[in-house]
Amino acid sequence: MSSNTDIDNLIELMAKLPGLGPRSARRAVLHLIRKRALLLTPLADAMQQVAATARECLNCGNVGTSDICEICNSEDRATGELCVVEDVADLWAMERAGVFKGRYHVLGGTLSALDGVGPEELRIPRLRDRIEAEGITEVILALSATVDGQTTAHYIADELQGRVRLTSLAQGVPIGGELDYLDDGTITAALRARKEM
Amino acid sequence: MSSNTDIDNLIELMAKLPGLGPRSARRAVLHLIRKRALLLTPLADAMQQVAATARECLNCGNVGTSDICEICNSEDRATGELCVVEDVADLWAMERAGVFKGRYHVLGGTLSALDGVGPEELRIPRLRDRIEAEGITEVILALSATVDGQTTAHYIADELQGRVRLTSLAQGVPIGGELDYLDDGTITAALRARKEM
C-alpha cells in the first residue's frame, strides 16, 4: 500500500482496533507520521508503559497497575455496597458519574448459552466469596438492559437471594431524553415506575 | 477516568487520532489491554519503528524510510509522466489501483486564500524544478473535484502551460455507481464527456 513494510505493518495493526477499518487506519497512520514528535512518539511510549504495567485486579477485575486495584485497596470504599458491572468500560462510566462510593465487581461479560459463557467464565464464584470476605450488605446489579444482561442479573439474584440486599439501576427516561426518540420499552418502564411529584 | 494515570494518558493520546473521540479511545484502550501480547506490544513496537525510520521524500513528498523514496529511486518509474496529488493518502490510493507507472508529486494540500496557503507552502516550486530535472513530458493533475482542488489545478496548469502536456483525471460515473445516488454535478460531467460505444 505504502510501498514500505514498517508503515504497512503499523496500518495493519491499527486496523485491528475497534472502530477503525483499513481506510481510517491509513488516515490515522498518516496523521501520526505528520505529528511524529507531538503524537507518534508519545503514543508509542504510552503504549509501552501500559503494556508493561497494566494488570487486572485479582479481586474485582478492574484494570490498574497493581494486583489489587486502587478502589479495592481504599478503605474509604469499603461501604458494604458492591456494584456488579459487565466490563471495565461500565466501571469507568460509573466512576465518571462520581455518585457511587462503594466497590465494584467486573463480571467480564454476560452469561450466554449460545457463546458457551457460563458462571465459571464470569467471575461469579469470586463474587460469592467477596460477599463474605468484605462484609457486603448490598449488591447493585448495574447490567445492560439487554436479554443477556438481564438473564445474568436474574442468575446472580437467584444465587445471592437471602444473603444480601439486591438492587438494580432504575429504568426510565434518560436525563435530556426526548420522549419522541425513546423506544417503547423505555417508555413502558418509565410509566410503570412513575413517581409522585 | 480509569483512576490510573498511565491508562488515562494513553486514552488521551488515542483520542487525538482522526476518527476517534474520547469514547472510542476508551474502547480501543480496553481492547488493547485485553489483547496485550497480540496487539498492544506489537503496536507500540511498530509505532516506535515508524517514528524512528519514517521520513518525507525530499523529491516528491511521499513518506518512506529514506530521503528519496522507492518510487523516485526506481528507474522503471522514470516514464516522463508525473502525477500531481494533494497528499500521501491520494498517492497510496493511486498505487492501490496499480495502473499508473510514472512518478508522483505530493503537494501537501491545496491552495487556499482563506487559510493562507500559497504556492510556496505547497511544493509547487519544486514541481517546476522537477520538470526540467527529470525530463517530464506529461503532468497528470489528480486533484480533488472540490473548489480548492480545482483552483489549485488551474493555478498549476497556468504555471506549466506550454512546457509539458497537461492532463487531468476523467470525471464521470464511478464504477459500480448507481445514477440514482449520484449528485447532479457528476451526472452533468458524465453526460458532457459521453463517449461513442
Automatic annotation (TrEMBL), chains A, B:
Record CDD domains: TOPRIM_recR
Keywords from the named record: DNA damage, DNA recombination, DNA repair, Metal-binding, Zinc, Zinc-finger
Gene3D superfamilies: 3.40.1360.10, 6.10.250.240, RecR Domain 1
InterPro entries the record matches: DNA_Rcmb_RecR (IPR000093), Rcmb_RecR (IPR023627), TOPRIM_dom (IPR006171), TOPRIM_RecR (IPR034137)
GO biological process, one term: DNA recombination
Pfam family, one: Toprim_4
SMART domains in alphabetical order: TOPRIM
Function noted in UniProt: May play a role in DNA repair. It seems to be involved in an RecBC-independent recombinational process of DNA repair. It may act with RecF and RecO.
Family to which this protein belongs: Belongs to the RecR family.
Protein name per Swiss-Prot or TrEMBL: Recombination protein RecR
Organism: Ruegeria marisrubri
Lineage: Bacteria, Pseudomonadati, Pseudomonadota, Alphaproteobacteria, Rhodobacterales
